[in-house]
TrEMBL record:
GO terms for biological process: riboflavin biosynthetic process. This is Bifunctional deaminase-reductase domain protein. It comes from Gordonia bronchialis (strain ATCC 25592 / DSM 43247 / BCRC 13721 / JCM 3198 / KCTC 3076 / NBRC 16047 / NCTC 10667) (Rhodococcus bronchialis). Belongs to the AHA1 family. InterPro entries: ASHA1/2-like_C (IPR013538), DHFR-like_dom_sf (IPR024072), RibDG_C (IPR002734), Riboflavin_Biosynth_HTPR (IPR050765), START-like_dom_sf (IPR023393). Residues 4-194 form the Bacterial bifunctional deaminase-reductase C-terminal domain. Residues 245-369 form the Activator of Hsp90 ATPase homologue 1/2-like C-terminal domain. It comes from the Bacteria. One of its GO terms (molecular function) is 5-amino-6-(5-phosphoribosylamino)uracil reductase activity.
């Protein structure tokens, strides 16, 4: 399940952004003091500096630094973190991360200016520039993450926007043992995370305090949210239309290919192929969740098309509502089958649209092999 994560550096007085930022001093006057413990770790030396000599600390700070890079499938950062403000008029400026940035994932750069073309960098990083709402950018990033986490980086304005919107599942603060007295503050006008998140603390050998906020409702990434996804799949089968049709219209033939196969144990099945009829397929995955599918046939034209609406549940939680159209067209030597679908994905399943398309491809592969 995709989770939304933030790692931030802050001072004892809650200052997260530094002052004195300029092209010659892009990180500001106090950045080195805020990040001293992180910059001393072996993980930073290896992952950011490319230093494989084994230099750097290996204690508590390093364990958090290593966790920062684990399980991330996409990143969202502000324009300042990319460096757009440094040379805003230069269309060839590729940021200050060098030719091989340390991300290795799609990175979505939030900007209020006209979007730029995407930048493909060495090492797998691709910068995409987006000017939309943070919720829309998050939807795109979560889909690109492919089930892994989305990490939200700086600057402080970007992090605060996601925190104020209640979109953050995991927040990790590295509190440096210093008082800055200047710079932007993190907590002003933010919701009380200690009421919605579990809070833990750990003090490192460097004196840095690591504070983590983990959302109490762990399975739920965003409490009330929906997303739309649509796809069309076309397959040519070397059988006549009437035979391909029977793979859907005949119960025993449908049972030969429909479902999760050996990966799950069926617990309920119903088949009623007629307009207004209802199909049910429920199965429990081995060491996994209980999946339930309920479909209603809304239109059937024999040997031509089938239209259904269907809902899915996972462990009793409503996952999605979808409209699916199946078309059967004769072609020389066989049948052209087209599956078109539009789905609404709910709450914690809002980023599962690509998985639905992948699952449907798997069903069509099983149909081909039946």
């Amino acid at each position: 399940m995709t989770r939304i994560r933030i790692d931030l550096f802050t001072s004892l007085d809650g200052r997260t952004a530094t002052t004195g930022i300029s092209p010659d001093n892009p990180m500001g006057d106090d950045w080195g003091r805020l990040t001293a413990a992180y910059g001393a770790t072996r993980t930073f030396h290896e992952r950011v500096l490319g230093d494989t000599t084994g230099a750097g600390t290996t204690g508590v700070d390093d364990s958090y630094a290593a966790a920062h890079f684990e399980g991330v499938g996409a990143e969202i950062i502000g324009a300042a973190m990319f460096g757009l403000h440094t040379f805003p008029a230069d269309p060839d400026w590729k940021g200050w991360w060098g030719d091989e940035p340390p991300f290795g994932t799609p990175v979505y750069v939030l900007t209020h200016t006209a979007p730029r073309p995407s930048l493909l960098m060495a090492g797998g990083t691709v910068f995409h520039f987006r000017s939309g709402a943070v919720e829309d950018v998050l939807t795109e990033a979560a889909q690109a993450a492919g089930g892994r986490d989305v990490r939200v980086g700086g600057g402080i304005g970007t992090a605060r926007a996601f925190l104020k919107a209640g979109l953050v599942d995991d927040l990790h603060l590295m509190i440096a043992p210093i008082v800055l007295g200047r710079g932007a503050r993190l907590w002003d006008d933010l919701p009380d995370l200690d009421r919605t998140h579990k809070v833990t603390t750990e003090v490192a050998e460097s004196g840095t305090i690591h504070v983590t906020f983990t959302r109490w409702d762990t399975p739920v990434t965003i409490e009330r949210r929906l997303a739309r996804a649509e796809f069309t799949l076309t397959r040519d089968y070397l059988v006549p239309v009437v035979r391909e049709w029977d793979s859907f219209a005949d119960e025993q033939q449908k049972l030969s290919w429909w479902g999760a196969g050996d990966a799950a144990e069926p617990t309920e099945w119903a088949f009623d192929f007629r307009v207004g009829g209802r199909d049910i397929a429920e199965a429990e995955f081995h060491d996994g969740p209980l999946s339930r599918y309920e479909a209603v046939y809304t239109d059937i034209v024999e040997h031509n098309r089938i239209v259904t609406t269907y809902d899915m549940w996972l462990d009793g939680v409503h996952m999605s509502t979808s409209l699916a159209a199946l078309e059967f067209d004769p072609i020389p030597g066989g049948t052209r089958f087209t599956h078109s679908e539009h789905g609404i994905f709910l709450d914690r399943f809002w980023a599962d649209g690509p998985n639905r398309e992948m699952g449907t491809r798997g069903l069509l592969d099983a149909l081909d092999a039946a």
